[in-house]
What does this fold into?
Amino acid sequence: MPPHDDTIDGDVYVTPRYLAGTTTIGDPGLEPLRALGWELHHDDLANAYLTAPDRKVRLGYLPEGDDDGLWRINAYRDRFGPPAWGVSFNDECPTEFVTAFTTALAQAYKDGPDHYLAPPDPTDPERAAFAAVAPLINRGWKTQHPRLDVLELQTPDGMAGLECTTGRLDPEKESQ
It folds into this structure.
């Protein structure tokens, strides 16, 4: 009898998608920004860094980072100042989620700084801070652990979550 072979032959689909985790390669998430000509750099640990031509948006793909923050993306009004906004995706976030974000960021970047640096505006349906999480709430995600300046949502099955800082970013914390 031949030894058992656990090799998967063909595609494997996991549902819901957020349970599948990351693909552990950054290429799909980097591609929308690379297509715009953003500079790619690597360090000696195999981390990858993308920088926008105007140096006001930076992305780090950090598989060898100090914590579970696999993806860190920050945007700056002044390229030498503190971040205007930042986002982090941990090492369990599906690469497709990051790719969807970087695809939207690429379009916003092409549209100009009034788009990718626009502050939330409750009078503008596209820039209302709540607009980003409304689709999740409409699909049954629930608020968790209410805290000042943080909105935390969790899937109905409790297997995935999202945390948003609703107040101002702390420049000291964000630059660490």
